[in-house]
Amino acid sequence: MFKNQKIYHLLFFRLILILSSVGLSVFLFSRALVYTGLFSAFISFLFLVEMFLFLRNAFLLYDRTIASILQNDFSSDFSKHKSYHNYSSLFQLYGKLKEKQHEQLSRDIIYRSILNNIETGIIILQKENSDWNIFLMNDYFSKHFAVPKVSKWHYLKNQLPSLCEIIEAQGFQEMKHSLQIRVNKQDTQTFIIQTSATKTFDQEYYIILLDSIQKVVEKKEKEAWINLMKVISHELLNSLTPIRSLSQNLNELVQQENLSAEDLEDIKQSVATMHNRSNHLQEFVESYRKLAMLPSPKKEKTELSELVENCIKIMQPLFKKENITMTNAINFKRWIMVDSNQMEQVFINLLTNSMYALEEKAIKEITISAEVKEKRIYLIINDTGTGIDAEIEDKVFLPFFTTRKDGAGIGLTLSKNIIEAHGGYLAFENGENGTKFTVCLLE
Fold this sequence. Notes:
alpha+beta, five-stranded antiparallel beta sheet, five-stranded mixed beta sheet, 12 strands, 53% helix, elongated
């Protein structure tokens, strides 16, 4: 019946018994009942010992449970004590913390499994005083660099000094650049290193990611080939499907013994359509050949402003027809080593692209400007056109991709290839009032 009572109730009850038995002993001694008084004193002593044992067991259970919680040791089993309602709150706390630890362990196992299956070298450092411990090193990093999973930074430094020295030189700050690392005593490989620092609950962490540039390039090449094959297959099917359908129709017509005037007209239209689609297919193949067999640039000393002005003169009749205001803001002379014919093709392609972007605009303006930075010339073409939709930004330079009905889809691709063959690059940027294409060339 006493198990359902709170511990302070039981303690108070024991104190009452002890005080009563002590009072009874004093009373018996005062009446000269020595032996009865001694017996009563002995009973009081037993009550005192029982209370001591009761308090010791109560506090031992509390101490044991709290010690388990503090040491993150949830292996103890307190189920046999659950009948004691005095400890129900303590057992509930212990049970909830145990569940949370199991959940945390499960998440840690999942996170480590994910990190170990990523084909990127990952190291997470944890700061301890002024030194760093290795909190996590994934399997890819350990296997790729043939480094054992050490626990201290200075151990890793003995294995990969080139990497660790770069990180230390940056003071364990955030960075992103390329570096060369010798792997397995073989030729050096180029990697992209990206680091970040974070702090949680007064604990500092430093995350290091290493990606092989070769894998990044292979991934981009694979994506480019997939996109290219989608465009090529789409273009081929657009031509082959009607040709196949028309050829089947012609085969049925020629099987007839007599041909009517209507049949002859169908044959003429079918042949004409097949001829047109064949011409389109030939133009498509020629465009691909032009991209695949782009000749090496024959560079010669060329004055930039004159080159741009010649291109504007070529496009001026079309600009006049479309009521486009063309502004040449290049007010300096610079000599560059380029293939003038190929560069003219680039500028004409970009100006043509801007012209079509202005078809549905009330304000039609194109501006060409240039600036020089660090021995590089940046030629900038701004237009007030419709801009490039975000959905197709990654396809702009893809071969044969076009949003125009009569477009071949090789203008920007060809321009990009020509600029890269000259050691520069071609980029674009969407703005609020149009699009900006930037051509970067060596001076």
